[in-house]
Amino acid sequence: MRILGVDPGSRLTGYGCIDLVGNQLRHVSHGTLKLASVHGKATVPLEQRLLLLYQGLSEAIQKYRPQVLAVEKVFFAKNAVSALKLGQARGAVVLTGAIHGLEIVEYSPTEVKASLSGYGRADKDQVAKMVQIIVGKKDFETSDASDGVALAICHAYRVVGGRNVQGVGSGSAGSLPTKKRGRSLAESLGLRLGPKGEVERS
User: What is the pTM of this model?
Assistant: First the structure.
């Protein structure tokens, strides 16, 4: 199974693609669709950014041929305007996946963080470290790209259920023990978040 995880945004949209074959996870690719400058006021109209998002994501889907698209669920934001734009970007992602006939699955940020790190309020750096442990140290240009990979891994871990999973990348992850109900991927790997938020062996 090939899974494409997408972290939608109206300025930057990150994606990550992994393969789940039997009990093997393999990193395929990751990247960031740059739709507008992240500094100051966006000069590219939103409708143009949504078109760029559709085109860029379609290109990635056609290139990597995933079967499943894992996307972040809508969550509440303090800024209503930002939340509205994020919702429109997310809608463009879901529509693009549907147009290309992909199965669409959704996970909240808390679900992804809890699944990978065992802590639903883990920060982006902690999630990125877990991603690197699982797929090997990759050059993530943005946290959006590592978040895209995290979404794909989250779905893979949900899919395998009781099966053992072999971590990939540098091989540092090794073989995961059988998943137990409520157990995070970090716990399965014998890892935990330290007192200062660092990822460490338990």
Answer: 0.81
